Amino acid sequence: MGSQVDDRDFTTLLSELTLEEKITLLSGRDFSTAAGVARLNIPPIRVADSIAGVRPSGITADLTTACFPNTACLGSTWDAELLGRLGERLAHQGREKSAQVVLGPTINIHRDPRAGRNFECFSEDPLLSGQLAGAIVNGIQSQGLGACPKHFVCNDSETLRHFYDVDASPDSRPLREIYIAAWQHLLRTSNPTGVMTA
Fold first, then answer.
1. The domain spanning residue 150 has which CATH number?
2. What is the pTM (predicted TM-score) of this model?
């Protein structure tokens, strides 16, 4: 990844962190940078979104990037090899934007054709969604950047998203057979650096 991390024992490192430093590591310095701890040589981590091309967030961010087809179009290809190559390209874009982690791919499930964020997701099929997402994750990580698929899980509400009071409560069967199944397929075919929660 962009910043080198030495081979220190992370258990020992955790014991060296103060409570305030631990809390700092769980927060962001800004919208696209996770804070580091300079005292212990823990570098900040820069992330960049990747819906149709990699772009850092923020008002002053450089938004120029090559634009790829949206994720729903990519899902229509059913071509994991092609999407693996796309992941490689996203990693190159991420590196150009000084990112160490690419936020994506999005593997929410198409449940309602009217949903405004379906363009960010592959399909209504969890097997296809998980396998294609795994191919992109593998492509990104083959180039030395981390991938952080999103949004775990049931992130398909259109109502009051900005108020952080969304209550997704599917029955156990659709939760298991549709929503979580996509993540199971992803994790069987790849080993992402992280997972963004819903």
1. 3.20.20.300
2. 0.86
